[in-house]
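Quick start: read one record
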Amino acid sequence: MMPRRILTILGLALCSGFASSQAAPDDASVWVEGESAGAKQVKTHPWYSDAVRKDQMSGEAWLSHFSDAADGTARYDLKIEKDGDYTLWVRANPVGSALAYQLNGGAWAPIDTSKASDVVNIAQDDKADLRFLGWMNGGKIPLKKGSATLAFKMHSPAHHHGAIDCFVLTTRAFEPRGTLKPGETQPPPAVPVLTDETVRKWIDFIRPSTDDTKWERLGWREELDAAVREARTLQRPLLLWAMNGHPLACT
């Protein structure tokens, strides 16, 4: 098993790759933060709205709604820089949710939340419940240069719940990935640099600690039958940790 400290170093290197390089000014895209609604009727909830990892959100905030009484709505005032057929992408809650949009006060159009991509669990406790974010394609929207309004309705069967992290209207090719905007890219991961001054620190950091090797001090059972009988007697679950090796030990 790889020690936790090595995993930590790898994790730091990988996470650093999520810092995006800024794209040049883009008149082909309109990026909007969910929490920036000009008008809204939403109700927040301490579990659904706040017990989440906001550091994984664009702008480290979102607009969320959780109510037994009514749907949640939000309206955004937009400035379109040029005519075009824009694709609507929304980063919102895809789990058991119902979401629709309305352009310039027209009819409501549904967004298929079942086909979300780049879905991530944002629950602080990592539980697999309603607290997720994913990107959803709302389809093509023809827009003229000038002002426009875009509204969203959160009307899920369970507590009318819904949440919007951000959305973008773009005429560019766009493959949603986290909080990257159209034209933004991820730089290569930063790699820790070893020097004469830091080598001892990193050796001490990587070397397994007492906590890292707790698994070695567990009372493992080497025979499955004996472990099954003991688990039945004690009414406890059985953890099976196994590995299939190559018959010639070429692993």
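The radius of gyration is 24 Å.
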